[in-house]
Amino acid sequence: MSSNKFLKHEGPWSDANDPLMCSDTGGWRTKRPVVDKDNCIFCGFCAIYCPIQIMEMVENSHFSVDLRFCKGCGICAKECPKNAISMIAEGDFQK
Amino acid sequence: MTEKKKGKLTKVLDYLKHEDPFSKGVAFCPGCGLELLLRFIPQVLGNDIVITGTPSCSAPVLLGQNNQSWHTLSYFGTLMTGAAANATGLARYYRKAGIKNTVVCFNGDGTAADIGFGNLSGAAERNEPFIYICYDNEGYMNTGIQKSGTTPYGATTTTTPLGSASKGKNLRRMNLGLKMAMHKIPYAATATLSDLEDLAKKLLKAKEAKERGFAFLHIFAPCTTGWGYAPENTIEVCRRAVKTNYFPLWEAVNGKIRMTKTVKKPQPVSTYTELIKKFAHLNEADLQILQDDIDYEYCMLGGLSVLEGECQLPVSSED
Amino acid sequence: MKPKTQDKTKPGSQIEVITGNAAAAIGAKLARPDVVAAYPITPQTEIIEQISKFHADGEMDCELITVEGENSAMNAVTAACLAGGRVFTASSSWGLVFMYDAILATAGARAPVVMVNVNRETPGIIAVSCGQQDMISTRDAGWIFLIAEDCQEILDLVLQAYRLAEDYDIQVPVMVHYDGFYLSYLSEGVNVPFQEDADRFLSVLNDQPQRTKLVPGGKLGCGTHGILGGYLELRYKHVSAMERSKAKFEEIDKEFQEIFGRSYGGQIEEYRMDDADVVLVGSGSMCGTIKAVIDEKRDAGVKVGLLKIRMYRPFPGEVMVAALKGKKAIGVVDRSLCFGFKGGPIYTELKAFETQLGGSKMMSFIDGIANTDITKANVEQMIDLTCDLAEGKDVREVTWVSYPEAQEPDSEKPDSEKRGGL
Question: How many CB atoms sit inside 10 A of residue C69's CB?
Fold first, then answer.
């Protein structure tokens, strides 16, 4: 039999029992969503509409963003009924 | 304070009963409608679905690379020409072998409306026991935004470009959802990303309906890169598509059509097109052609629901 | 199809007079496929009619998918096969090439699909007639190709195809070819195996490790992108499996003989080859005629034999070289064309072994295309020309046997030249 260096199976099968691939999509971001906890009414719209599904509930009071993967699309800020999420240029955090 | 906040949590979250099986870092554009849809489906239907995917924007994520995968779902990478037939083969074998299954045949509009329509229609005619989902971004986005059968009148794509002799696509779009409903399958419905509770309900109805046969969902999933709108507007574009009746939300059980959301005062199509660059060149007369098409399709939808025995104009019973 | 007579002299079978298509259908039925998907096309249609009747009569417990086109037939059975099922489909000619993208995907996925292709012209020019051009159009798809000579061999090869395709060491789809019209509608006596013997023959597969299957919730996916080294690895595995299938097919021929008492010789069949000076190489239904003419020529003192190709992909180069080495002249009969080459496809491929054959001269015969019968007279002509070649006479490299116009001196010139210029 041939080697299984790249694929564990005889045919073109991928195997998710092994760790999943993951890209550093957080590095794509030019603007960062910043949640104003006080204004957040915990409606969850940001969470359901986030394409990456990375809005995390914090203490049943507000949501926070997983910045490792957030691409900065701004949907959460746009959909927030209280305008409690601001998109701040990443450059501002480097200063 | 916290107690008061809790009460307002969106009901949509109640439908997300299962884990998101996808890796968090995947190569979809920022603001991608497809990414939201793809993560939403298994959270509602469960992680034990078998999903099929064709060459498309979904393929780089649905299909692995050598031994590695971007998600934990069982999947089969199919050809665009035979996606519904592939799903048929899976569902039929599982039925024969007595294996409980939910096969989700997940395709773009290029596969569903164009190159794979024949076998989609064939699978519907044979009432095959699986769920077919078309995510409609109105064109061939993965190859660089070309015109498809669902590209609307006037839209520019790289194969319907603007020019001295062209104002974008000079043909009306195909009404894929209605076409499928007319196969009188157990379940057909339209849905979009602004109305996620509606979408979740329809996914669950499709799962239940596939026990009786073919279930089809036509899901409007805008493309920020291909259409030229700001990434944060993906949901707003969906919302306005519904509010203008550009993409009405309905369902059909055995071909019997019922609106799941009725817009009381539909807005003019310009409130939808103004967000999107692919329509930016259209003047009032051009927009009227698009508006007439929308009105015609909506009128026909209403007429069909009457013909199908509802004996009333389409009204919502749930919203 | 109820058994009419039971021939007790041939254990494990009953004799029925059936068509080639019925033999294929019964072969498939005996293999107990889980899923069958097919679309009608002349001259294959009778197969799916038979299977539909078996299914309707409750004799065949399978999911029968009456698809809307051949492309869907292949896609459906491939997916069912990857999910873990045993599958069957059948097609011909235009139908075969309408499933071409799926045929490639089936092989790429290493799905052990078994299908029957009833050889028919063309695709290319509309012709409702026999020819192997459809087989040639798909020969590089990565499938194992087997070719049957008569109705008995059709049934036997379908059973053997399952044993071969699903073998854990192979896992390559197998296509069984036989000549449309000449065999598809030919009725002859066929030993139809008993179901329990067919089950016993295929039961070897149950004792093997199970191939990778697509299971709901199983975290495996089929159709991953082959990237760089991974792509090469998959292709190398495929090529290796194809090579292994040659010896495996020989083993299977022996297993088959033990149970059913019939043996065909594996990759090739040699007919009166031992002391032959000249040899015709052929495949399919033409071989019956060739054998009859060889018998007559032998009676007249001509030392001629036949090498019948049973396994066309992988190409049985090693056994062909062993059988042909040292022969004075070889005439290869092709029922198809190899565009871009003057000679037929099998001739062109055998030429690759010319140096290993040790000086045997070779010539190409194109015949039997579009139901132009390969008659006894045609075969005689081929044998005579091959003998001429053996004797060093000046003969054309390629002969279109049923189209003598091709042998005229100006036949290759363009029409404009024949008319005296443009």
Answer: 18
pLDDT at B317 over 50: no
Q: Largest Cα–Cα distance in chain A?
A: 63
Domains and CATH numbers, chain A: 32-94 (3.30.70.20)
CATH classification (class only), C13-214+221-260: alpha beta
Window 61-90 of B, Cβ < 8 Å to C: 63-69, 72-79, 81-90
Number of helices followed by number of strands (H, E) in chain A = 3, 5
- Is the CB of residue C378 less than 8 Å from the CB of residue C402? yes
- Give the bridge partners for C313, in sequence order: C145
**How many CB atoms neighbour CB C157 within 10 A?**
27
Confidence of residue B314 (pLDDT cuts 50, 70, 90): very low
Q: Which of residues 107-146 of B touch C (CB under 8 A)?
A: 118-119, 121-122, 125-126
In chain B, the DSSP E strands lie at 50-53, 74-77, 103-108, 131-136, 162-163, 166-167, 187-192, 215-220, 249-253, 256-261
Q: What residue ranges in A1-95 does DSSP mark as E strands? A: 13-15, 31-35, 55-58, 62-65, 85-89
Contact C217 B67 (CB under 8 A): no
**B19–chain C Cβ distance below 8 A for any pair:** no
For B198-267, give the secondary structure using H, E and C.
HHHHHHHHHHHHCCCCCEEEEEECCCHHHHCCCHHHHHHHHHHHHHCCCCCEEEEECCEEEEEECCCCCC
Closest CA in chain B for residue C214: B74
Compute the nearest-CA separation of C117 from chain B (Å): 20
Name every chain B residue with its beta carbon within 8 A of the beta carbon of C82.
76, 90
**How far from B154 is each of B148, B172, B210, B274, B281, CA to CA, in Å?**
13, 8, 37, 13, 8
Given B48, B82, B85, which is nearest C217 (Cβ)?
Answer: B48
Assess A88–B contact: CB distance below 8 Å, yes or no.
no
Write the CATH number of the domain with boundaries C268-407. Answer: 3.40.50.920
C268-407 matches C13-214+221-260 in CATH topology: yes
3-state secondary structure labels for all residues of C68-97:
CCHHHHHHHHHHHHHHCCCEEEEECHHHHH
Domain residue spans in chain C? 13-214+221-260, 268-407
Kindly indicate the confidence band of residue B318, based on its pLDDT and cuts at 50, 70 and 90. Answer: very low
Rounded CA gap, A59 and A52, in Å? 21
Angle between helical axes of B33-45 and B196-209 (0-180°, round to 10)? 50
Q: Which structural domain range is residue B175 located in?
A: 2-310
d(CA C258, CA C160): 13
Average pLDDT over residues B197-202: 98
Axis crossing angle, helix C70-83 with helix B117-125, rounded to the nearest 10: 70
**C118's tokens:** 């009833």
Nearest by CB to A74, from B65, B196, B231: name it: B231
CATH value at residue B35 = 3.40.50.970
Query: What whole-number distance in Å separates Cα of residue C329 and Cα of residue C319?
Result: 17
Mean pLDDT in residue range C254-272: 96
Is B69 within 8 Å of C68 when comparing Cβ atoms? no
Domain total of chain B: 1
pLDDT digits 0-9 by tens, B130-167: 999 999 999 999 999 999 999 999 999 999 999 999 99
The answer to whether position B315 is within a domain reads no
- Interface partners of chain A (CB pairs < 8 Å, 3 or more) are B, C
How many Cβ contacts (< 8 angstroms) between chains A and B?
139
pTM for the whole structure: 0.95
With CA atoms as reference, report the closest residue to C311 among C269, C357, C257: C269
What confidence tens digit (pLDDT) does each residue in C383-406 have?
Answer: 999 999 999 999 999 999 999 999
Question: In the prediction, which pLDDT does B5 show?
Answer: 52
DSSP state of C266: T
pLDDT greater than 70 at residue A25: yes
